[in-house]
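Q: Trace token order:
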Amino acid sequence: MHELIKKRRSIRKFSDKEVEDEKLKQILTAAMVAPSARNIRPWEFIVVKDKETRRKLAKLRSSGRFIREAPATIVVLGKESESNLWLQDCSLAASHIYLETVNQGLGTCWVNAVGSKTDDGGDAEKAFKEVLDVPVEVRILGLFPIGYPAEEKENYDEGHYDEAIVHSENYSTK
């Protein structure tokens, strides 16, 4: 698992190769078994493969323009009415998406929705909801474009461990 974690990198360039449904199912299964407070699991997911829908989503935020090129995008939704910890729970599900995506030989990069702005200054979450027909009471944590990487990045290594940011017993102790 440690090697898988170090292999995880944000991928923004994808090949044209379609992502197999079985791989998407494995990624979604990993997300669905993420820990959640009181096991409420306040998440739902949308899998977007349609090119036109991905194009519309990509236009909303230049930082997410690579949504257009990824053959699939998983949208992580949270049901705020079910848990006041939906943000934390859905973030754990998102981390499982990242790791299982790498495990499947694929790449992804988080495109934030909640608390973000569109290129024209609008509410990104609201704009994404409009494109995806998501009800107002359901939140969108983020979008995860998924595909076969068309770029190579070096794995992280033990050199990324930084003793300077580790405290012992309390904040003032290094």
Observations:
- The chain is about 30% helix and 15% strand.
